[in-house]
Structure formats: C-alpha cells, structure tokens
Amino acid sequence: MAYRAQQINPWFGVGAAALVAALILGTLGVVAFHAPNAAQLGPSDWAAIRFTVSQALLSALLSVVFAVPVARALSRRQFRGRGMLITLLGAPFLLPVIVAVMGLLAVFGRSGWVSQGLELLGLPPVPIYGFHGVVIAHVFFNLPLATRIILQGWSGIPAERFRLAAQLGFSARDVMWHMEWPMLKRAAPGAFAIIFAICLSSFAVALTLGGGPRATTVELAIYQAFRFDFDLGKAALLAAMQLVLAGSAAMLALWMSQGQGGFGKGLDRELERWNEGSRGLDFISIAAAVLFLLVPMLAVGSRGLTALPSLPSVVWLSAWSSIQVALLSAGLALFLSLSIALAVTRFAWIESVGLLAIAASPLVIGTGLFIVIFPVASPQDWAFLVTACVNAVMALPFALRVLIPAVQDVCDDYGRLALSLGVSRWGILRLVILPRIRAPLGFAIGLAAALSMGDLGVVALFAGTGEATLPLQIYRLMGAYRMDAAAGAALLLAMLSFGVFWICDTWGRRGA
User: What is the rounded end-to-end Cα distance, in angstroms, of the chain?
Assistant: First the structure.
C-alpha cells in the first residue's frame, strides 16, 4: 500500500468525504437547531415508521426471492439476445420514478390492462394505491438490481466446479445444494440489506401511490411536516430515525459484501452446464420478469407517443431545467466520487461515508441548505442549484460502487511501476488512472445524470409555481388530470434519461 500513498494524494478525497458528511449530518443539525420546540412523535408518525419498515422488508424480500429463479435461468441458458436482455433488465433502475408509476398505473391501475382482464373473469381489480402499490413499485425498481447482484454471484462460480460436479454424477438438486445454495447464502443477504435501505428512504413512490394515513413512509412524513406544518423538530427527529435504520442496513450490506468468501480462482473457461434442470421453468422465469419489467415501459411509450407532438411549452421549459440540473449534478457527483475513490486506496474507511447518502433524507438536506441560504438570498432562486447538490450526494453511493474497484485495480497493477519511474501524482492520475477507468467513469457519470434527471424530491418542496423540473411538471399534470399530456411528458423524460446515460456510457467505452 506504500506506493498508493505516495502516488495518489488522498486529502482531496478526505475533504470530499468530510464535505459529504457535513452536508448530511450538518444540515440535519441545522434543521434540529432551528426547531422552536423539542419534537415528539405522535401515533401517525409511529404508523409511518411501521409502514416504512414493513413495506421495505416485504419489498426487499420479494425482490430477492423473485430474482433468484431469474438469475439462475440467465446463468445457465445461452440464447441469442441474452446480453441485450440483461442490459434491458437494468432499464427500470434508470427509469424516472414518476414515469414508472405511470406505466404501473397503465398496467395495474383500476382501468389498467390487468384489472380489466380480472374484471372479465369476475375478480376484483389489483389494489394499486396504498401498501400494495408501494410494494409493487419497489419490486419493479429493485428486482433488476437483485437479479444483477445474484447473477454476478452465479458468474463467480468457476466453470471447473460444474465440470467436477458432472464428473461426480451430481444431479441438478445436488448442484443446487452443494454449489448454488452456498453462493446464495453469501449474495442474497447483501442484496436484501441494500434494497431494504433503498426502500426505507422512498419518497416519490409513496407520494404518488401512497400518501394516505395508512400508506405514508418516513420520507413522506418529513415532506408533510415541512410542507403543511413546518414542524422542523418533527422532521429532524424522523430524519434521524431514518438515518439510523437505513444506515444500519447499508453498513450491514457493506459488511456482508466485504466478508464474502468465494469458490477460488478458475481458468476463465467458457461455462458449460450439464445438469441444467427444467428448461420450461427457466423460460417461465425469464418471460415473467420481462413482462413485469418491460410492459409498463411499453405502456408509457405507446400512450405518450401520440401526445408528444402537442406538449405545452411549459413542459419543454421544464425539460431544459432538468437537463441543466442533471449536468450540474453529474459534474458534482464525478468530483466527489472520483476524489473519494482515490482516497479509498489509502483509507478504506472513507467508503462508509458515501453510504450515508443511502440513509440520508434529501428533503432534510435541502431544507438545511435553504435555512443557511435564507438570510442572504431568496431560497426559490437557489432551488435548482440546491436540487443538483442534493442529487449529486444521492447518486454518490452508486458511483462509488462503480469507481472504487476500478481505481483499486489500476493502483494494484501499475502503482509500483509508476513509483519506480518517478511519475508525479498528477501524472499518474492523468496518464494512468483516468485512461484506464474511462469506461466505469462514463458509466458513473451517466448513472448520476440519469438519476438526477428523474428525481422528484427537493424540487417538489421548494420550486416556485412558475418553475419546475420535468418530473415535477409531470406530477402537476397528473394532479390536474391531464393524463395524455402527462404521458407525453413522461415519454420525453424517459428519452432524456436514457439518452444522457447512453451518451456518457458510450463516451466512456469508446477508446477506453
């Protein structure tokens, strides 16, 4: 590790980590300090906490349980278009929440395709609003994430293990019990913990599909405390409880991922499976996942395509605002994540600071910043800038998970050589690290920009009536029952989100 310390200056990363920690914990302290009275949680607040924990537990459990047969089928079946299918399964993670909600309403809503089919059979429609709707939406978003995590675990089993199992006459049940089940015991708990932490801080899903007294998450309760009661004490107390719950789950996920063993190294041979199990079951698993994840997106596209040419001018202005916020947010996320990733090569504990963002409340961060800004300027004039800063912090954990392994690999492979050649710190960063991490760097930038493009959080609390990002404009159109215009705006938002991600990712992979 000595060459890392000499070749890479870690103090920019330490400063970036300190800035993130101050932004998360400091704004929480500012909000609590400005609370006029000590807060106490009432019955509705405890109900929101119970609802948040219960829906997060069920959402994470269903996401992992459904991901296991899908990942297993993808790991042992080779077919044309498999790589593209795996890529498309990750699309819901980039899809803006408000767009996904519209797609789920088109499929599972009271007048949706599924409900109409159930009505023809004399069955009641799917209850999309409330607890059921929140869980369905969270499974929609997190099933691809769980599938990729578990599929990576399956890919980590060397081909030689399956060859040896075939020579020993293992049946499909034996392979599952002696090889796949140990892998699942390592991979599944970590996937469950990280998805549980993500679902704990849900806001936009609960705002659109929940919101009633019996379907309020902690983040939505914080929004209500700010928006309707301006009870800073209650908001700070709820945010502290969410920080403890989600932070504990995130740290548990990090501990599980670091403590995982493996099956040892293989010879990187092409994987061959002899005891493949039921082809019909694998086909059903893949087909069900494709229908569940892609049909809502097709529903939004089919309805929004006709309304796209007649969108009002305010939608296009909101789209331009979203692009500006996304680009600024991506730039800030790039600086923070790259600085922290470089510092992790010397101080491994710094990575845990980035995980605070999973547990933090973006509404509390935004409110704390506005309290600081208020004495010197109008908060509404800074709404988009504050939104970009908060979105950058929220995207930080995902960017770090992409960049840290890549930076560590480059330092391990080329650090001693750069040290022996006397390359300066700036030289190793410019000539060695940045060119070799260009592909994950482009992916991280695109991911941060896409997540910021579709965010409906701080801007919903502080944007003025005449200004809005595109997700907030869609929410307002839905509230005004202008569903055709909302569908067209949702399609535009999806195109912009995937477009900015594709541009950044293509830049990273081209010539890397």
Answer: 26
> Is residue 267 very low, low, confident or very high in pLDDT (cuts 50, 70, 90)?
very low
Residue 127 lies in a domain: no
Name the residue type at position 68.
V
Contact at 8 Å (CB) between 242 and 218?
yes
In a domain, residue 2? The reply is yes
Instruction: Kindly tell me the number of DSSP H helices and DSSP E strands found in the chain.
Output: 26, 0
Among 286, 287, 280, which residue's Cα sits nearest to residue 69?
Answer: 286
Into how many domains does the chain fold? 1
| Nearest-angstrom CA–CA distance, 474 and 74 | 36
Residue 146, classified by CB atoms within 10 Å of its CB into exposed (0-12), middle (13-18) or buried (19+), is buried
Q: Of 205, 225, 223, 230, which Cα lies nearest the Cα of 215?
A: 205
| Angle between helices 181-200 and 131-155 in degrees, nearest 10 | 140
Residue 166 included in any domain? no
| Tokens of residue 81, six digits | 């278009």
Q: Residue range 180-199: average pLDDT?
A: 81
Residue 128: strand, helix, or coil: coil
The residue among 434, 427, 425, 436 whose CA lies nearest residue 9 is 425
- Tell me the C-alpha distance between 278 and 72, whole Å: 11
The neighbour count for residue 354, using CB atoms within 10 Å, is 27
Q: What percent of the chain has pLDDT over 90?
A: 11
- Which pTM value belongs to this model? 0.80
Burial 459-477 (b: 16+ CB within 10 A, else e): bbbbbeeebbbbbbbbbbb
Contacts of 306 (CB under 8 A, 6+ apart): 484, 488
* CATH code (residue 333): 1.10.3720.10
Is 232 part of a structural domain of the chain? no
The whole-number pLDDT of residue 424 equals 67
112 Rama class: left (phi>0) / alpha (psi -120 to 50) / beta: beta
Radius of gyration of the chain (CA): 24
Using CA atoms, how far apart are residues 399 and 392, in angstroms rounded to an integer?
10
Q: Which of 267-276, 282-291, 352-361 has the lowest mean pLDDT?
A: 267-276
299 sits in the region (left: phi over 0; alpha: psi -120 to 50; else beta) called alpha
Print the domain residue range for 354.
1-34+311-512
Q: Counting Cβ atoms within 10 Å, is residue 277 exposed (0-12), middle (13-18) or buried (19+)?
A: middle
Angstrom distance (rounded) from CA 326 to CA 497: 9
The string of DSSP letters for 211-269 reads -STTS--HHHHHHHIIIII--HHHHHHHHHHHHHHHHHHHHHHHHHHHT---------P
Task: Give the DSSP H or E segment for 144.
Answer: helix 131-155
